[in-house]
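Hi support team,

I submitted a single chain yesterday and got back a structure, but I'm not sure I'm reading the token output correctly. Could someone confirm the output below corresponds to the sequence I sent? I've pasted both exactly as they appear in my results page.

Thanks,
R.
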Amino acid sequence: MILSHFWGLIFHPAQEWNSIREKPLSILRLYLGQIMWLAAIPAVCTYVGTTQTGWSLPGNTQIVKLTTDSATVMAGLTWLAMLSSIAVIGGFVQWMAETFGSKPTLAQSVAFTSYCAVPMFIAGICGLYPSIWLAIVAGTVAVSISTWLLYSGLPTFMQIPEERAFIYSSSILCIAMVVFVTLMITTVIFWGMGAGPEFVQVY
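Hi R., thanks for writing in. Yes, this is the structure output for that exact sequence:
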């Protein structure tokens, strides 16, 4: 269902955002039926790419892979991080809403956040072929589409004037960046605790 809504957001966004707002799923149904599966895309694809495909560093012909145990831990932590990020950002979306003249439920706020994040989940398919340049290109495209969904969809979804929605959207974007930086710091901490990658050189 989330993907059918996503294509609707691309081709007829106003109608689709209204449909999502008027018929929101519960948070449990959102997570069990949609978000947990979408969040698994980058985690699973990166696991496969780092353990089966591998990558080579510039100026080096050796193929590097991760051990299955190491990749499993990292994929699991990535999946959990994405699930928690949607919940945290969704919580902030609802918390800030009243300031800008809207009163969405928490379920509506989490739904809005998850639909904006769909492009980044889908971009996780690129993890099947680990490449810094592919990751940069796919990440840039995904973030651009997500940002467009955020700024274009917020006025309709929250039913507020565009001038308020612009400031609201910018605030949400800042929160998302803070969450991203926090995840990076948490990753470094976990690596220091022994949950970091273990490499294997194939040839």
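A quick pointer for reading it: Residues 13 and 152 are 8 Å apart (CA to CA). Let us know if anything else looks off.

Best,
Support desk
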